[in-house]
Write a structure and sequence with these properties.
The structure is a homodimer of 215-residue chains.
Chain A (H helix, E strand, L loop, with lengths): L13 H15 L9 H11 L4 H4 E3 L3 H10 L3 E4 L2 H6 L2 H5 L5 E3 L4 H10 L3 H10 L5 E5 L3 H14 L5 E4 L7 H10 L4 E4 L6 H17 L2
Parallel strand pairs in A: 2-3, 2-4, 4-5, 5-6
Antiparallel strand pairs in A: 1-6
Helix pairs in contact in A: 1-2, 2-11, 4-11, 7-8, 8-9, 9-10
Protein name (chains A, B): Precorrin-8X methylmutase
Pathway (chains A, B): Cofactor biosynthesis; adenosylcobalamin biosynthesis
Keywords (chains A, B): Cobalamin biosynthesis, Isomerase
């Protein structure tokens, strides 16, 4: 069906119909997705209307199972933007005892960033590394957040439990994602320049949806 | 420069360097943008790393001047997601007396949506139409919000002062944007399926940046 035709769909059916169209178009292009990655990739396409995610979204071994287990265990989710925090299903996370955080607007983070000549995103990562318990980093905006996580990992032995690494941009976005893929940290990364706070949030939400469906 | 090389850029220079790279790539592709539209289109590319916005972002006559005047006049900005609201520079808007709103989580909106069998986004638009003063609608998610604005316009004579129409998706996203372009409402619309809450927010922020620079 052409995109510029009106389709009548009941409010509660819109998401389902969107996923049906996405599945149909992937089939038409002959793109086969791994079953465990499929709901994540389709949700990124649903969020962006960009089918390139089917080619660039990259998962380490068992990444989705690791991520879903972390959520079941009540891990903290740390975002690098208020937008990602706003987009994450926080009441869904709460059911598993998970809390989502974003330190970007904290006055202390501003001060550290200014003093050290680093971005607020990088300073946020350092603060988040000191949080108690398991930690999922959901980075949709700042390559410097991923660069800082890599530095903390390589130089101080910090091990994030999971990284959703989907910063968007032109300065070190692709590079920072390649760097994370070279570590042994379980992650989902979108290779190249694309990503965003909306994509970071949708990947957390994809995990929640999938846990909910497989209960 | 290849995307996977590290580039050293000071925190305060990252955005400037990103815009330089975007300009360079547009030049290389021979894409010429209208001066008044350029900062808006470049900011969408900056937000998404997607150069297709250079071809699909569509402005009605004098759209950017109309939008900037509305902000200077203290118009309300109504979003269809908490994500867009989170991404908008609200302290920047406040300088001009503008307030940003999102009614999506209001209990009353949930009740109306349920009762009328419409989406919460559509119900939000109806509520927003009753706000006092000038109104800018920044729609990044729900095609049904644009469909409702069109209905209010055509059937009840409601005139939004400006529409940023960039919902993303597969069910009526492209159609709803074409519909708004057919009205006489001043707007910026991204033709086709692409858009998002991040794009809606970045277009409001582009207007604020441009007003700030041209003071």
């Amino acid at each position: 069906m052409a995109d510029d035709e009106y389709i009548f769909v009941k409010p509660e059916e819109i998401e389902k119909e969107s996923f049906r169209i996405i599945g149909e178009e992937l089939d038409r292009e002959g793109i086969k997705l791994k079953p465990e990655e499929e709901p994540y990739i389709k949700r990124c396409i649903h969020t962006s209307a960009d089918f390139s995610y089917a080619k660039t979204l990259t998962f380490t071994e068992n990444a989705t199972a690791v991520l879903e287990d972390l959520i079941r265990d009540g891990a903290s989710v740390i975002c690098d933007t208020q937008m990602a925090l706003a987009g994450i299903n926080k009441s869904g996370l709460k059911k598993y005892g998970c809390e989502a955080h974003c330190f970007m607007s904290d006055q202390r983070i501003r001060e550290i960033a200014k003093k050290e000549g680093i971005t607020r995103a990088a300073a946020s990562m350092e603060a988040a590394a000191h949080l108690e318990g398991k930690k999922i980093f959901a980075i949709g905006n700042a390559p410097t957040a991923l660069l800082k996580l890599d530095l903390l990992h390589c130089e101080q032995g910090f091990n994030p439990d999971f990284i959703i690494g989907v910063p968007v941009g032109f300065v070190n976005a692709a590079y920072s994602k390649d760097l994370i893929l070279k570590t042994k940290i379980p992650c989902i990364v979108n290779r190249g320049r694309k990503g965003g706070s909306n994509i970071a949030a949708c990947l957390v939400n994809a995990a929640l949806k999938h846990i909910g469906q497989s209960k």
